[in-house]
Structure formats: structure tokens, C-alpha cells
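User: We ran a pulldown and think these components assemble together. Before we commit to crystallization trials, I'd like a predicted model of the whole complex to look at. Sequences follow.
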Amino acid sequence: MGVKDSPIGVFDSGIGGLTVMRALIKVLPYESIIYFGDTARVPYGTKSPATIVRFSLESVEFLLERDVKCVVVACNTSSAHALPVLRKYFKVPIIGVIQPGAMAAVKATKNKRVGIIGTQATVRSKAYEEAIKHLDPAVRVVSQSCPLFVPLAEEGMTRGKECESIIQHYCKSLKRSAIDTLILGCTHYPLLAATIQKILGRSIHLIDSGRQTAVDVQGLLMGMDMLCDKRSKPSYRFYVTDENEHFQTLSSRFLGRVVNKVELAKWNR
Amino acid sequence: MGVKDSPIGVFDSGIGGLTVMRALIKVLPYESIIYFGDTARVPYGTKSPATIVRFSLESVEFLLERDVKCVVVACNTSSAHALPVLRKYFKVPIIGVIQPGAMAAVKATKNKRVGIIGTQATVRSKAYEEAIKHLDPAVRVVSQSCPLFVPLAEEGMTRGKECESIIQHYCKSLKRSAIDTLILGCTHYPLLAATIQKILGRSIHLIDSGRQTAVDVQGLLMGMDMLCDKRSKPSYRFYVTDENEHFQTLSSRFLGRVVNKVELAKWNR
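Assistant: Here's a predicted model for the assembly, 538 residues in total across the polymer chains.
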């Protein structure tokens, strides 16, 4: 099997990365994908940089043992903290979601005020902020961590008064800052996009980093001549470190299709 | 150092067990305590029984290496799933929070209708239900998992309209069931007690399993002649598997005092 036929590896701390995989499938419908979710140790967003880096190294190693041709770090928290280390340790191309999201935001903003929402670890890393400033130092950035958004999305409470009241709570400072663009800096947040849009107003441009990442993966594979040139049905495999019904239950909402077979990654972490 | 002077070990998946430690300190002010929080892999409540058991075994082993005279499994999820296995593997007395909470509830209920709120894994285990039925088969039990309560408590959103609206959401079925007693089956929930009481009404008896557990630990140590008989200042040590400011920030709210020194448990999990 040549490199072109090798699968893309997608790594996430849990289930959220399925929204990025969904975007990848849309952009690259002939590519096979191996998804790895570290569901035993999820979430990463409340944890320290050292732990996030360690977990990320172990997870990406698992994917590389399965001969993926590139790795997409779907997890924003991991992308924010671990990407430089991952790139130092491993030779395959590794793409995070921060850079693509930042580029899309800089392109989209008219008034040069961009908001970022994400986990505590992502916000604390200032990774989006730095990526944006690097692209355009004139852009002003406002960040807000939203720890309740992940459980809201997983509970399916993506509309209604409970959800709206939580979004109101977190979006106060964003509203005051007159941003015109908001990066959904966590894989779960696209599920809340409609209600966030309702609260912040239709004029705010929402950036789904995952969607932009998929486009960049296409560019990378094309540039490196690694796009799969077969037009047969691709294969999708799913590995998790904790096996529970959660993954299968939520897959239809996150991936847009039901995952019937999830394999337990056998390792001792 | 004799067994009497040995510390009590408290194990929790993260920070929540500090509410149980707080109750222990109140009941047993002369006992030294070693607290172990598996903050790198927290939460357990969304994970599978196999993973919960594995993590619990490793965590309790860590405490036993530090010569604790007994282990309090402060985590409801771990108590619900791992207690029998822990007791099979280890010789020291191991006390969970389920049995104490169940006993307190059976004692408190007048109309024999008890509600239980907890994590998904705790509710799914039916551990409280079985413990209650064992004590009094006539008691009717209604359970509800409340995945948003832990992040609410950690965010400090324990009052106000966001909090009330989420509690309303989860307590619908409990209200309909005309319970007169509710077990707070997760270490974080005592922080929400005032608002839960407000939503459910003052007539509902709230059971804090942790508080009852502290009383039972006293009974156990007394019965086994293991109570510390020195009247000097006890020592408290705190170990975590992930070191971040979270623990220190939240300790005042959960433990009622600021923890200045937290040690990183050095292991490779």
C-alpha cells in the first residue's frame, strides 16, 4: 500500500473531534480515516500543559503505529499546547486546528475585532491570539473560556432557555467588545452555533476551525502529492481508550452518521 | 509509628472529594489525612465500569504505598463501581460513600420515596438503589443523572438564574415523583445544595453522603481501635496526578480552607 492509500489519522481528546472528521469527509470523500479519541482521559481542557502534552504524544503515537500518512490534531486544547512538541517528535505532517481557525478569522473580520471561545487550557495558552497577531498585529482579540459548553453539547441541550442563559452568561464580555467575528475554538461548539448566533446576533461571523482545517488538510495532501487517487469507498475506523455507549450515542450528532463499530485501544495508560 | 498514628487515605477522581475530607476533618479533627485526586483523568462519571475500576485500583494503590490505615473512596462513581474489587484486592478497611448515603436516606424518608442525583456512571450502576432496597425493600427510588452540576459547581455558578434553570431542568422527574428525601450522590453537589433546596422546596430532606461517611469512618476506626489518640495538630497532604492551579483555586470552596501545597503524584499512567 502506497502512502497515497494510507489513512488520515484524526486525534481528539474524546468525541468532539468527530465534528472535524465530518468536515474532512465532506472535503475529502475518498480518504480513509482512523479516528482516535482518548475517551478514558477526556477532557484535556481543564488540565495542565504538561499533562496535555504527555497525553497527546501517547495518542499520536498510537495513530502512527497504524501507518497514517498525516495527523490532524482535532482537539483545540491539544493543538494549542502540544503541536510544537508533536512536530518535534514525529516526522509525518501534523496539522492542528488553531492556525486554520486563526487564518479564517483574520480573513473574515472587517472591524479587526475577533472573539475566541474555548476551554480554559486553550484560552490560557493564548495560541489563537498569537496566531492571529502573527497574521495581523492590528487585530484585537477577546477570549472567553466556556466550561459549560461541552457538557451542554453532550447533553443535547443545544437550544432552549437553559442553553441560552448559559450562553448569555459567557458571552457578556464578547458582546461588549463589539467583535464581528467569533472563533468556535473547541470541537464541541459547532453544535451550539445556532444558539450562539441567536444570542450574539446574525451579524457576527462564526468560524468553525474544524471546517477550515479540513480545507487545509486537502491543500497539504495535494501539495505533498499524497491525496488518495482511488475513487473507491474509503474506510473509517474508530479507536477509543474508554469503551462506553456514549461514543456511539453521540456519534450521529457529532459526525452526522451512526458509528456502529468502535474499537478499544489496548494500551496501559 | 503505630497504626493509630497513620493517616486516613482519601481517594477521589479529582477535587470533589475535598467536600468529604472537609466532613472528615470536622468529625475527626485529630486524624491526619492524605488526599489523592486523580485530576489527570477526572472525571470518572462519564466513563465505563472497566475504566473506573482500573483507575480506582491504581489510585488506591498509591495511597496504600503511603501507609494509610484505611481508605475512604470519596468519589461516588468509584464507590458505585469499584468498591467490591478494591475490597477484594486490598486488605485495609475501605469505605465508600454509597452505603452511608443510602442508610441516611432510608432513615430520613417518611413517605418512603427517595431521589438520587449523581453522575451518569453512578446512576447507571444502580448502586444507591440496591443499597436502599437492601435496607428497606419498600422504599421507592427515582434516579437522575445531572452532568451539568459538576461544571456548575466548579465554575462557582451555584446560585442565580443559570444555575436555577439547569437545576429545574434536571429535577422535573424528581418533583413529579413526590420524593421527600434526596441523596446528593456526587461530591460536588453539596455546593449546589442551597439552590437545589430552593427549587425542590424546603420540605425535601437533602442527604450529603460525604457527611454521613465521615461519621461511619469514625465508627469504623473506633470499632477497630485505630483512632488516633494523640491530641496534636494533624497533618494533611494532597497529591494529584495533574498539577494545575484549579485545585488550589477551588480548594477554599470545596474544603473550606486554602490548600497551599499540592504534590504531583509521580507515576506514569
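The two ends of chain A are 31 Å apart (CA to CA). That may be worth checking against your pulldown data before setting up trials.

User: Thanks, that helps.
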